[in-house]
Each structure stands twice: as structure tokens, then as C-alpha cells.
Amino acid sequence: MNTPLWVDIETAQRTSVAYCPGLLTQDDFACIKDAVSSILEVEDPVENNQGNAIYENKLCVILNKASTNDMLRQRCPRVLAKILRFAKNASRQQNWTAPGGPLESCGDVEDFQVRTAERWRYSVGGGLSNQTHFDHGSLLTLVSALDDGYEGGVFRTGLDADDTMNEHYMHPGDCVCFLSHKYHNVTPVVKGTRHSLVIELW
């Protein structure tokens, strides 16, 4: 069965990105790191996510798999609660689920479920180069920066009327929320290692 396309692609491009500076803390980063370590003790990266067999200069660890006891929810409930609260507030501020909004037929954000929770690690050369990448079938996507010890690796959304991408220079703990069908990508990392937490809701 095909996953539904909840929002027209062109409509999604015209929506704004919500921004929450400093949503996550150093304690939250440590909690996420501990969850990742616990997962990789019982699953190698390819067992956890088959995409890791082909990714170049990047690694994705799925944090909400049943096979590893939904580690994000189990180990980091405070992190998840913060992010879900931000999603609810962002939707209210942007009128995404309000009458006439792009997600009006999808119910209240409080009823959305976590589709996937991923910790991404980009090393030098790693990025997401597809300028028209979007998260097909999800409703909202939230991206949180977990560090800043790198150069490059700029998170971008778009496209604008002139076909350019909006660049989001995020500091550790910052989080953005946007419609999942809005294009987004990451420029290549040129120095250091970039870590981020990506959560999709549906």
C-alpha cells in the first residue's frame, strides 16, 4: 500500500520553518549518546539500519525500533517530551492544523505518532545533496543540532521563489520544525563531525 502524500508539494514549499533555540541541553545530548551506545551494543549499524551499508561518510542509528525497546522513549523521555511539545506549539503558531491550514485534515498534533527517530552522524564529505528531498508520508519533521564541532554541514530548506535554499545555522540544542514535505538537505561537512537528531511524526 502506498504511503499517502498528505500535503501538496508546492504548498509545503510555501510554509515556514519554526525555530526553537536551545531546546535541548548538554544533559539531553548525553542521554541521546547513551541511547545510541546501548543500541550499538546489541545491533551493528547495518542491522539497525540497512541504509548504513550504502551511506558514504554518514551513519544513521534508529532510536525507536521495537527490537531495541524503543530506546529513545525508554532512556530519553524528557528529550522526546520537549520535542513533541515544540511540535505542538509550532503547529499552533503556524496554523498548520487549523481550518484552512495544510494539515487541517490530519487531526491534532497531540495525536501524531513518532514514525522514526534517528541520530545522524556526518563525517567529512557526508551530507544530503538531493535538493528536492522530503520525508514522504510523514506530517512533521523536527531536526535538532547536537554539537557544533564541525564546518559545513549546513541544514537547508526550500525552495524559495528564486529556487534557492534557506540556510539554517543551528547551534547545539537548537531545533527546527517544518512540514515533512518541505524540501530539505544538508551541505557536505568539510571539517569535523556533525551529529543531529531527526524525528518524523505522522
Describe, in plain words, how this protein is organized in 3D.
This protein has 202 residues and is of the alpha+beta class. A hairpin with a 7-residue loop joins strand 6 and strand 7. Helices cover 24% and strands 27% of the residues. The mean pLDDT is 95.
What's the mean pLDDT score? 95
Shape: globular
The tally of helices reads 5
Q: Specify the structural class.
A: alpha+beta
User: Would you list the SSEs in sequence order as H and E?
Assistant: HEHHEHHEEEEEEEEE
Task: Outline the fold blueprint.
Blueprint lengths: L8 H5 L4 E3 L5 H17 L2 H4 L9 E5 L8 H5 L1 H18 L19 E9 L17 E6 L4 E3 L2 E4 L7 E3 L6 E5 L3 E4 L2 E4 L1 E8 L1
Antiparallel strand pairs: 1-8, 2-3, 3-11, 4-8, 4-11, 5-10, 6-7, 6-9
List key phrases describing it:
202 residues, alpha+beta, six-stranded antiparallel sheet, three-stranded antiparallel sheet, 27% strand
Entry summary:
The protein is built from five helices and eleven strands, in the order αβααβααβββββββββ.
